[in-house]
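Here's what a typical entry looks like (Cilia- and flagella-associated protein 410):
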Amino acid sequence: MRLTRAAVLARAKAAALDGVRRLNCCANLLFLSLPAQISICRDLPNIEVITFSVNGISDLEPLNQCQNLSELYLRKNNIASLNELFYLKNLPRLRVLWLSENPCCGSDPHRYRMTVLRNLPSLQKLDNQAVTEEELSQALVDGEEITAPPARRNVENGCPESIESSTAESTTETESELLNFSLEETNKIREELGMKPVPRDKFSSFSPRETDCNRKRRNNVLNAILLLMKELDAESLEIIQQTVGRRLQALQKKELQEE
């Protein structure tokens, strides 16, 4: 997918791009890896808050034009290198950044946090945790200074993948871990938007037989639906209820026929 002018205006409920102050594309199935696909960000001079959490974004170059940006949410994307911070270093008003659960975080949380703070010393909050003066001082010692942009990456078969080697360690998820991941993922999204968490007994996991890519897509679809529900009025919810009922009946009928 690509963020178009029409899509941005619709999401932000604005009449023109220079009137967009907040853009929420959280869990919006934006499996993006090329700067051109989020190039619309270059045309948002007054944007203050951007939420791109739970997508497949890996390149941040277009964001370096957002000089009024103060809050940026990029949790759970495909950012493979901390060198992407190069594009955020010249954003004078950036105070809040949520970057956790990206490959670039690696296996050493201290090194990751120190590197981010060394390059973005104006941050007041990183990954939903307040930044202290002590941390900023320590970052000058333990953090790595980023002086160049990252290498280019690509995408194959619809699943974003980094060409660069990631420092993040691969893990094998059991069925139980998948359930915890999905529930945690949904509730973190809702937390970012100021919504109440979903109880475990109201949440269902996905089949472990699915491929990793398909499972993540389905998880993102569910999260997107949950987020959009709060925007609907009673009449719209009734339409959805009727549509879901018909869909369930069709699926049940198909299952009976297959048996």
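The CA atoms of residues 182 and 205 lie 7 Å apart.

More examples are in the samples folder.
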